[in-house]
Design goal:
With about 270 residues, this protein is an alpha+beta fold. It is built from 12 helices and 5 strands.
Length: about 270
């Protein structure tokens, strides 16, 4: 997504969040301000309904038999760090990807299961996205657009959209292309590595994936893990993290030859949620 489209999308999220607050002149006594995570859940639920209406969410497929055993240990480790239960769905989109929306929703594009080379690369990608949720990165991006949101909310209301529709439109503008800051991406890398290790996966899988990106021609690299800081910088940061926490990471094999193959059924059938 080009820069102006990203700004517009997140401006709409910020505008939608404004709708969640009670009106200043309401006759009823003011209620306690809801927790930020409650706003996140509202955003995530609206995005889910929008994806469902578009026919992108996969309700059943043998691909879940591949994904579920890998992501479940990651969620068990990460759940204590987030207030809402994580929910995982396969979706169908052209580019291999995974993305997270506020409220604990994790979406995995079916093509990703065919793209990654091994279980460790998949686990690293999933842990990275879960980490964005833990750090509330999506909501942070939304709040940065406060200067634009007043104009956007007016346009949305004039179009007669409901609150949920405004939230969904704001989120589903190619969520996998969101422009997180380099700081947010780097933090998700390191937290993702910690989660990987705690879940029993080799965290070097994320390093192997970044090396593949680095070695590939730019036109062949899909929009995966959002917009990337420099791949070599991310590799270096992960390796420094592994060295600094030797008691956690030293026993993991850094060689990609130790990777665990990922077996995915060819052209697995899918049934979409209606």
């Amino acid at each position: 997504m080009i820069a102006c489209e990203r700004l517009r999308a997140w401006a709409l999220i910020g505008a939608a969040l404004a709708c969640l607050a009670p009106a200043a002149n309401a006759a009823a006594p003011p209620k306690a301000k809801p927790a930020a995570q409650d706003d996140e859940l509202a955003v995530g639920q609206a995005a889910f309904e929008h994806l469902k209406a578009k026919g992108e969410i996969i309700e059943s497929s043998p691909l879940y038999d591949v994904l579920t055993p890998i992501i479940n240990p990651i969620i068990r480790v990460a759940q204590a760090r987030y207030d809402h239960p994580f929910k995982v769905y396969l979706v169908h989109e052209p580019q291999p990807n995974a993305f997270a929306t506020p409220g604990g929703y994790i979406y995995v594009v079916d093509a990703l299961l065919y793209f990654v080379k091994n279980k460790e690369q998949l686990a690293g990608t999933l842990s990275h996205e879960v980490s964005h949720t833990i750090h509330h990165d999506g909501m942070t991006l939304a709040k940065k657009q406060e200067g634009i949101r007043k104009r956007e909310i007016g346009g949305a209301i004039l179009l007669g959209r409901t609150r949920a529709e405004i939230l969904a439109i704001a989120l589903i503008g190619k969520l996998h292309s969101l422009s997180y800051s380099r700081e947010a991406e780097s933090r998700a890398d390191l937290t993702g590595a910690d989660i990987c290790a705690a879940a029993g996966y080799n965290p070097w899988g994320l390093v192997w994936l970044f090396r593949d990106f680095k070695n590939a021609r730019s036109l062949e690299i899909p929009q995966l893990l959002s917009d990337h800081p420099n791949d070599q910088n991310r590799i270096d940061a992960l390796e420094r993290h592994f060295r600094s926490e030797a008691t956690v990471f030293a026993h993991f094999d850094s060689s990609a030859r130790s990777a665990t193959p990922l077996t995915v059924p060819n052209k697995a059938p899918v049934v979409f949620m209606r």
